[in-house]
Design goal:
alpha/beta, Rossmann fold, Dihydrodipicolinate Reductase, domain 2, 2 domains, five-stranded mixed β-sheet, 33% helix, elongated
């Protein structure tokens, strides 16, 4: 059995991960970490690292940036593999995470969905064929999401940008600009409202037609399952930095 510890266990995604663990015969929930304790919980919940007294094989992290980085430091000190599904890190923080991976196995993805990662490969191929098209990414999420644009939108943009040797400019806000659109842009639009799980659309605008690729998530279970499959994978890996391409 692989002992799973959930960081951000009382959050929306943390609770979803916990509910999905029972669908995996080889995974065992041993505890969680959250700043808010739940006295009715059926498993140990900690809010201080020094109090953690359970044997952990893999940490699954669905929390927020500062909480992730604190847990990453704990994981490094105790050499515990960690799956990071939190998004919104700065470039400096991303580099810090990769530095940590020299000392422990880290699996990180902006989206734990297999289909989204397939979509990233598809949009990159389309970008090669439609190299002169204007590219826009629209993402829609629930009103509780904090980061904008979503990590998934950036994942898709990065896949496209690699085709152009990372020379594309990301434009997140045109409100302050009074100029026509540059052909070198990848534009982003973020919509927040209601309880929508997630929707991502990549649009390629040519002079006489538009090509659009869209992915819609209907349940958070798919992200939880992806993270738990990543935990299964990571449990037996050497130190290093892994992502969905390694899992797939």
């Amino acid at each position: 059995m692989i002992n799973i510890f959930v960081n951000g266990c009382n959050g929306r995604m943390g609770r979803t991960v916990i509910s999905q663990i029972e669908n995996f015969d080889n995974l065992n929930l041993v505890g969680g970490f959250d700043i808010n304790k739940d006295e009715t919980s059926t498993f140990p919940i900690f809010n201080d690292f020094k109090d953690i007294d359970v044997k952990i094989d893999v940490i699954v992290d669905f929390s927020y940036i500062t909480m992730t980085l604190d847990m990453l430091e704990y994981a490094s000190k105790n050499h515990i593999p960690i799956v990071i599904a939190t998004t919104g890190f700065t470039a400096e923080q991303e580099n810090m995470i990769k530095e940590y991976s020299k000392n422990l196995p880290i699996f990180k993805s902006s989206n734990m969905s297999f289909d989204i990662n397939l979509m990233s490969k598809i949009v990159a191929e389309v970008a090669k064929k439609l190299s002169n098209a204007d590219i826009e990414i629209i993402e829609t999420h629930h009103n509780q999401k904090k980061d904008s644009p979503s990590g998934t939108a950036l994942l898709l943009a990065n896949a496209i940008n690699e085709v152009f040797d990372n020379k594309k400019e990301y434009v997140f806000d045109r409100h302050s600009k009074s100029e026509k659109r540059s052909p070198n842009e990848i534009g982003f639009s973020s919509i927040r409202g209601g309880n929508i799980v997630g929707e991502h659309t990549v649009q390629f605008f040519s002079p006489y037609e538009t090509f659009e690729i869209k992915h819609t998530s209907y349940s958070r279970n798919l992200f939880a399952d992806g993270a738990l499959k990543a935990a299964e994978f990571l449990a037996n890996q050497p130190n290093g930095f892994y992502n969905m391409n390694d899992l797939v």
